[in-house]
Amino acid sequence: MIKRTSAADSHTEMISLEGYSLGDVRADRSQELAEAVQVVLRQVARPRANLGGAGPPGRAD
Predict the structure, then answer these.
(1) For residue 59, which phi and psi values (nearest 5 degrees)?
(2) Cβ of 53: how many Cβ atoms within 10 Å?
(3) pTM over 0.85
């Protein structure tokens, strides 16, 4: 089962794949993984502009 990372663990709402091999991920058919993949695909399809000032480029989310 894939663990959902909480805000206390890190600064993301994505699932944690810690301890998963590529084979484990490919075999996983959970709804959590499917939802995470859709989030990533939406971000790739529509990247956000860098809203920072003089700092290095990065995401605003």
Answers:
(1) -80, 150
(2) 5
(3) no
